[in-house]
Each structure stands twice: as structure tokens, then as C-alpha cells.
Design goal:
Blueprint lengths: L22 E4 L9 E8 L4 E7 L8 E3 L3 E7 L4 E6 L16 H14 L4 H23 L6 E7 L4 E4 L8 E4 L5
Antiparallel strand pairs: 1-2, 2-3, 3-7, 4-8, 5-6, 5-7, 8-9
Helix pairs in contact: 1-2
Length: 180
């Protein structure tokens, strides 16, 4: 589905007045807390700009972009954070593992490997995932008031996004807006 807009027209976009094909929800097909509202603010041959509303308690999906992504975050009270994710870098979802947690993650992986084909594998994986999510929530609570996040992502042609997240049954590559 391609919805291109001309490049030479000035825009002032109110996301709440966009037509139905310019907004929706991501993560509805994924179990757990992965829902976020998205709006296509601008999509033409040179740029795709998406605004996302991440509700407290919801987690993003790990993904990367073929040509990188410029991402502007507003956390709570107008505390912008601007990040550049180079081409192919996996980002969002669970944060990068600090050096001190590398041992814990290796131990978890070893426990799962040792479980082999046991029914315990799924239970162990779920317990480890739940523990990481709880740690993220505790960290967010410790950092201050919990509030929605507004994210403005800017993508460049060919607008390819690759989803690499344990919540998805397999790796998925999407070209254009990420409808889910």
C-alpha cells in the first residue's frame, strides 16, 4: 500500500484529522504489551515520517531499517531525545544489555539449551522475558513519573524495516509504512 504525497507542498498535519489509511495500531497481532498508535505525517519519494504514541506499559518491537532512522522522542514533559540508528542497527524493544548483565544472559541461554526439547523451554523463556520486562518497568519507575512517549521517526528510501523480535514467529521485512 503506497500513499505518496507531493514533495513541494507545505504541510501542517494534525494527526487526529488524518484519514483512516494514514493511522492505525501496531502490535495488535503480537501477544503481550506491544501496542502503539501510529500516524503517517508525510510520505513521498524521499521521506517517510511517522509519529507514534507509546502508552506506558507497552513495549516497542525490535527492528532495523535498511537506510537508518532519525528518531525524535518526547518522554513525559517535553524531554526530547534525538537518536540516529545507522543502517541495519537493531533498536527498540529490550534495551542493549549492559556489560554487567552479559553473564546473566549467558546463564539464561545455557539453561534453555540444557532444557533441550523439554516442555520447560517455553516456561523458562517466558520467565526470562517477564523478568526483563519487569526490570524495564522498575527502571522507568525509578527514573520518574510514568507518561506516554511520543516518537517521530524519519525513514529514507527504500523505507525497508526488518522486524527481529522474539515476539514475532519469524523475521519480517516490510517496505513502506509498517501496518500491523
Amino acid at each position: 500500500m503506497t500513499h505518496l504525497q507531493p514533495e513541494n507542498v507545505a504541510r501542517n498535519v494534525n494527526p487526529y484529522t488524518l484519514p483512516p489509511d494514514k493511522h492505525g495500531w501496531r502490535g495488535l497481532s503480537v501477544p503481550g504489551h506491544h501496542k502503539r498508535k501510529w500516524y503517517t505525517l508525510l510520505h513521498n519519494e524521499t521521506v517517510l515520517v511517522t509519529a507514534l504514541l507509546l502508552i506506558p506499559g507497552e513495549a516497542s518491537i525490535r527492528h532495523s531499517h535498511e537506510t537508518g532512522e532519525l528518531s525524535i522522542h518526547y518522554n513525559g514533559e517535553m524531554k526530547p531525545g534525538i537518536y540516529w540508528h545507522p543502517a541495519g542497527e537493531i533498536h527498540s524493544g529490550s534495551p542493549a544489555t549492559p556489560e554487567g548483565e552479559a553473564t546473566r544472559m549467558a546463564r539464561e541461554e545455557e539453561m534453555i539449551r540444557q532444557a533441550g526439547d523439554s516442555p520447560m523451554v517455553a516456561l523458562l523463556q517466558q520467565l526470562f522475558t517477564d523478568q526483563r520486562e519487569m526490570r524495564q518497568k522498575l527502571d522507568a519507575t525509578a527514573q520518574g513519573a510514568i507518561a506516554p512517549r511520543i516518537i517521530v521517526d524519519v525513514l529514507f528510501p527504500p523505507f525497508k524495516t526488518t522486524i527481529r523480535d522474539p515476539a514475532y514467529p519469524e523475521e519480517v521485512t516490510i517496505t513502506g509504512q509498517w501496518y500491523d
